[in-house]
Amino acid sequence: MAGPILPTLLAQTNPPPDLVALGAEAYVYHTHFLTASHPCILKYRPSKPYRHPTLDARLTRHRILSEARTLVKCMREGVNVPGVLALDADAGWLMEEWIEGGTVRERLQSWRDRRKEVSLELQGSAGIGSKEEEMCSERILNLMRRIGDVVGRLHEVGVVHGDLTTSNLMLQSESNSMTNRHTVAGNSESHGAEVSLAGEVVLIDFGLASTSVQDEDKAVDLYVLERAFGSTHPEVEEQFKEVLKAYGESYKGGKLVLKRLEEVRMRGRKKSMLG
Q1: End-to-end CA distance of the chain
Q2: Around 191, how many Cα atoms within 13 Å sit in the side-chain half-sphere?
Q3: Which entry of 163, 205, 215, 217 is annotated as an active-site residue?
Q4: pTM of the model
Q5: pLDDT tens digits, residue range 53-84?
Q6: Is 163 an active-site residue?
Q7: Burial label, 245 (beta-carbon count in 10 A; 0-12, 13-18, 19+)
Q8: 80-89 burial, b if ≥16 CB within 10 A, otherwise e?
Q9: How far apart are CA 68 and CA 89, in angstroms?
Q10: For the purposes of burial, counting CB atoms within 10 Å of the CB of 226, is it exposed (0-12), middle (13-18) or buried (19 or more)?
Q11: Which residues contact 67 (CB under 8 A, 6 or more apart)?
Q12: Residue 243 has what DSSP assignment?
């Protein structure tokens, strides 16, 4: 996957960095730190030719430093985020710890697709037993609770993510071995529940994050996540209430934020009705 010219310091990296995400503001590469056995993420903000060079340099420097400081603060306070390995604010790049695993979005979509496959495979047979259904449902509920816990911890330390979607929530692999992000066990008797929803939930991509103690800002964060589940994962939208329940119990101010969330929802519905 071809990408832009890399920072001079990294242009001769061997093996070369692999472009894994291309955004409006930054390019994200999978590369290594110091040695090939230490994988990491390189987030590079290239210069914008449409901006004045001085302004562009200041904005890039500010955003790199702001993201790094937020990550360091979160790490220090015990929030599950990637560690900062290195940065060059003037050159526009930031290196972060590589999180082995897959995004919550990927895992939920794989889980949904596998469930559909199993339903087709079992048509005309006894189908998925009640015990298997119960186990599968509990896996989803457990994931929702873990998401609520980690978002609550983030807000407790006074940080608002700014782009809280399932693409920015990682499920870290429980082992250190290299695993496929869409691993499906070969046991057909497990009735499709084999797509792993286990692992620690890790928050990533803090490019839009900010420091805030306002309940309104935190409620908007939750509202964005709620809308993301509704649009991207409608099959588990009903279980999102477990995210909010876990969030409300995760820290002292959680229930106040949930009350403010109701007001944010009302404004969102009104805006949708008015167009």
Answers
A1: 39
A2: 16
A3: 163
A4: 0.86
A5: 999 999 999 999 999 999 999 999 999 999 99
A6: yes
A7: middle
A8: bbbebbebbb
A9: 10
A10: buried
A11: 43, 94, 206, 207, 209
A12: H
